[in-house]
Amino acid sequence: xxxxxxxxxxxxxxxxxxxxxxxxxxxxxxxxxxxxxxxxxxxxxxxxxxxxxxxxxxxxxxxxxxxxxxxxxxxxxxxxxxxxxxxxxxxxxxxxxxxxxxxxxxxxxxxxxxxxxxxxxxxxxxxxxxxxxxxxxxxxxxxxxxxxxxxxxxxxxxxxxxxxxxxxxxxxxxxxxxxxxxxxxxxxxxxxxxxxxxxxxxxxxxxxxxxxxxxxxxxxxxxxxxxxxxxxxxxxxxxxxxxxxxxxxxxxxxxxxxxxxxxxx
Length: 265
Fold this sequence. Notes:
By secondary structure, the chain is of the alpha+beta class. It folds into 2 domains: 2-67, no CATH class; 96-259, 3-Layer(aba) Sandwich (Glutaredoxin). Helices cover 60% and strands 9% of the residues. It contains 11 helices and 5 strands; from the N terminus they run ααααββαβαααααββα. It has helices spanning 2-13, 22-35, 38-46, 48-83, 115-130, 150-161, 165-177, 186-195, 200-206, 210-225, 247-259, and strands at 96-98, 104-110, 135-141, 233-236, 239-242. Helix 5 (115-130) links the parallel strand 2 and strand 3 (135-141). Helix 6 (150-161) crosses helix 9 (200-206) and helix 6 packs across helix 10 (210-225). The protein is elongated.
């Protein structure tokens, strides 16, 4: 209250309680503060608690406004993709989990070390269970630079996949089921590779194959082109999902695609 009274007094002092335009008011206040900034600092020093409370309240309101704006912007972008779907590349030798040619194509850009990707892994399992035989799942790589074991884990997955894609997906599942052990680096990765029955001789050879890194690089470039900066990121029948959203979010998108006649289940 004291801060408010001082502010009103300040406005009165510069003549802003008379009939002036908003522009004139701003100009007068700006001029006073520029010529004598101590007016403001004195008011703050006299009422520090009220000033901090006012700033915190303003910051909270600003955060809410920005969050709402981001939400509206994302909603607009999402709406646009129903009619102009994103088109991730599905390679001729792509490893498909589920049913090839299924009506639902779910592409994930993932990081083996990201805890949110573990949530994404569980959600993918829910989606495939909810729509049996109707999902083609494609796993792509987006290892983040600050996750030290993410890139090498991706390389192991691709190296195993070159020999046996089923074993590669078993490797994928084992990593996400035991993600914390990734801190043990390649010792853990080799242990998992042996557990899923990978041919360790071929694995060692494939890890040196330039095609392994090239494929990962292609995935990362594609993810960037779709604005996927964090993990996990998904594209479901051309509609992007950025983050570890629950199954219900994906179901809403699927239902909307069906409603618009863009998906038949």
